[in-house]
Amino acid sequence: MGSNSVRREGDSLMVGLGETPPSTDLFAEDLFADRVVLVTGGGTGIGKAVALAFADHGADVAVVSRNMDHLTPVVEEIESRGGRAYATTVDVREYESVDTMTETVVEEFGGIDVLVNNAGANFLTPTELLTPNGWRAVVGTILDGTAYCTLSVGEHMIENDGGAIVSMGATNSVQGAPYHAHSGAGKAGVHNLMQTVASEWAVHDIRANTIAPGIIETEGVTEAAGGELPEEILQDIPAERFGTPADCVPTVLFLTSPAAAYVTGGYFAVDGGQLLASSPF
Ligand SMILES: CCCCCCCCCCC/C=C/C(=O)SCCNC(=O)CCNC(=O)[C@H](O)C(C)(C)COP(=O)(O)OP(=O)(O)OC[C@H]1O[C@@H](n2cnc3c(N)ncnc32)[C@H](O)[C@@H]1OP(=O)(O)O
Ligand SMILES: NC(=O)C1=CN([C@@H]2O[C@H](COP(=O)(O)OP(=O)(O)OC[C@H]3O[C@@H](n4cnc5c(N)ncnc54)[C@H](OP(=O)(O)O)[C@@H]3O)[C@@H](O)[C@H]2O)C=CC1
C-alpha cells in the first residue's frame, strides 16, 4: 500500500468505526490548491477542524464569525503551517453584514469557490418554554444565516463559474426529538434549502449538499446540552462513542472536491449510526 494509506501497523479498526484518520492521510496534498474556501463559524469546533483541513490541502481559507478572538488563532495556525488565511467578522443573521463579508473575502482572495455554512446555535428546551426570542436566536442563526450566506456567496458563484456549497444540518432535521423544536425545524429548513439550491443552480455548475453530524463533542454542543453530554446517550449510538470534529472533515472535503462532481442535493449523516432505529428485539 502507498505511503498515504490509512492502513497502519497496530490499527485494529482499519476501515471500521474507530478514529477518523487525519485528512492528510486520505486526500491529496494539493486537492484544493488555487481554491478559495469560506467557512462560517470557522473559529471553533467543527468549523475550525474543517478550516484547518482545507488549508492543509492547499486552499486559501477565510474564516468568519462574530468574535475575532475565535478567528485569529485559526488564521495564525494556518499561516504557521505555510498557508494563506483571512478572517473577518460577520453576523450571519444580518443580510447586510453577510454581503459585506462576501465582498471583503472576494476582494482579499479574488473569489470564493467553496462555501461551508457551519455557523450554528442551539440550546435544549421544552417547547412550551421556548420564547419567540429563543426561537429567533437559533432559527435566525441556522436557517436565516445559511440562506443569507448561500444567497450572497451564490450570487458571486453564479457570476464566476460555479462552486460547491456544504451546509451543516443535523440528524434532528429528519427525526424530531424532544427539546429540539427550534433547532430541528431550522436544520430541516437547511436540508430543504440545499436541495432546492442544488436543483436550481446545477445549471450554474454549483453543487449543494447537507452534512448531518450526530453528536460531535465540541464546547458548543456541550454548552447547548446544558454543560455536559449525558453518557446514557451512547446507548443509542451504534458506534458507542460521540463523534469528534475530525470525523466530520473527510465528508466536507469529499463533497466540495471534484471527486463529488456528480453529487448534489444529498444528505450525508456523520453520526456513528445514531439515526438507525434501535433494535426491537
Ligand atoms: C438530552 C441530551 C441531548 C444531548 C445533546 C444533543 C444535541 C444534538 C445535536 C443537535 C443539533 C445541533 C447542535 C448544535 O448546534 S451544537 C453547537 C452550536 N453552538 C452553540 O449553540 C453554542 C452554545 N449556545 C449559545 O451560545 C447560546 O445559548 C445561544 C447561541 C443559543 C443563544 O445566544 P444569543 O446570545 O444569541 O441569545 P441570548 O442569550 O440573547 O438569548 C436569546 C433568547 O434565547 C433564550 N435562551 C438562550 N439560551 C437559552 C436556554 N439555554 N434555555 C432557554 N432559553 C434560552 C433567551 O432567554 C432569550 O430569550 P428571551 O429574550 O425571551 O429571554
Ligand atoms: N456538535 C454537534 O454535536 C453538532 C453540531 N451541528 C452543527 O455543526 C455546526 C458547528 O457546531 P459546533 O462546532 O458543535 O459548535 P460551535 O459552537 O463550536 O460553532 C458554532 C460557530 O458558529 C459561530 N456563530 C454562531 N452564531 C453566529 C452568528 N450569528 N454569526 C456568525 N457566526 C456565528 C460561532 O462563532 P462566534 O461565537 O465567534 O460567532 C461558532 O464558531 C453548527 O451548525 C451546528 O449546529 C449539528 C449537529 C450536531
UniProtKB/TrEMBL annotation:
Its main location: other. It catalyses: (2E)-hexenoyl-CoA + NADPH + H(+) = hexanoyl-CoA + NADP(+); (2E)-decenoyl-CoA + NADPH + H(+) = decanoyl-CoA + NADP(+); a (2E)-enoyl-CoA + NADPH + H(+) = a 2,3-saturated acyl-CoA + NADP(+); (2E)-tetradecenoyl-CoA + NADPH + H(+) = tetradecanoyl-CoA + NADP(+). The keyword Chloroplast does not apply. Gene3D superfamilies: NAD(P)-binding Rossmann-like Domain. GO terms for biological process: fatty acid biosynthetic process. The keyword Magnesium does not apply. Pathway: Lipid metabolism. It is an enzyme of class 1 (oxidoreductase). It is found in: Peroxisome. Its EC number is 1.3.1.38. It comes from the Archaea. GO terms for molecular function: trans-2-enoyl-CoA reductase (NADPH) activity. Interacts with PEX5, probably required to target it into peroxisomes. Participates in chain elongation of fatty acids. Catalyzes the reduction of trans-2-enoyl-CoAs of varying chain lengths from 6:1 to 16:1, having maximum activity with 10:1 CoA. Has no 2,4-dienoyl-CoA reductase activity. This is Peroxisomal trans-2-enoyl-CoA reductase.
